[in-house]
Amino acid sequence: MKKGLNIKFSIALLVSLAMVVLMGCTQNEFGEQEFSKFTFQVNVGQVDILFVVDTSGSMSEEQRKMAQAFNNFLQGLNIPGVDYRIGIITMDVESKSNPPRDFGNGLRAEQNGNLLRFPDGSYYLTPDSNNIEDQFWQTIRREETLDCERNGYDTSVCPSDDERGIYSAFLTVNANKKNFFRENGHVAFVFLTDEDVRGHGLSQFQAPNYMPEALDYPVNLIQAVKSNIGNNTTISAHAIITDGVTCLNQQNSQNGNAFIDGKIGTFYSTLTNPNNFSLADPDRRLGDYADGNLVQGVVGSICANDYSAEVGNIASVITQTKSEEKFRCILDREESLDVRISDEYSWTLNESRDGVTFTPALPAGQSFVIEYECFE
Description:
23% of the residues lie in helices and 24% in strands. The chain is α/β, with parallel strands linked by helices. The chain is globular.
């Protein structure tokens, strides 16, 4: 176990990693690359939270429960030093079978991963926003969902029932719309839906023209975060979904409503666990695509009477202290490793030589510098 150096650090926040990366390579006498040198300044901090909401008919009650539970979520985030952004998008993606729609907020405003505008005109909430709970309530409860239900699920006035939450989130990440995501922080996705991707996911009951496409798969969302937000961004995905047969039966028997047709959310639950195998490649785990930066998320039941426990657990994951830092490689040369941190904390090289463990875990307001070499 090694003690850190006593250094004054800039203010840092919780959970996520805000990293500045310097990389250099050396060559041997033959001009061949030998190793890459990585230097990170890591701030345990900033988190960008994207709620991805199913707006199809039948979802008004679930939207209401999420709005009511938001206070519990917010309390979990309100820890000194936590710097959050909260945005909301829908699962409605424009396609040949799903034309552009306008529900009074501008053409396509509620489609294609566009961030919904809050009542104060902003596209995301921060600790400095006014009336945060009320603004969240007004935005996550969708008028287009209520109109669909009031009009007997008339498809001419309803949002699409082709729910594509992962694809929609991919579009937000890929373009980093409204500069919502900050480089090399922590990105948290919270999915709220009573169906799987495109309804049935990969079920045998899926209609041929509704089969999931490449961008509906979890792995592509992970890769989009790494490519567009930062290779060292940590990721967590959370899903309040139809989580099993009991909930499925409950969903499909709501007041005898034939328009409510729930599905178990396999795609979304898969994304929450880094140890799950990729749906696109059954030989690889999702965590492998994230280089160890996919954090275990929360799966909650959409059938719960109150989502307070679910969102409280999600907030706990997002604001957890940092106990480990993973490397980009298995360390070959221990002498290349240098960790500079306040001397009240210690660090130890893991037995697998793929990271360091901090004792005690780093809280809000801590930072450290780490330097090591990876042979190519």
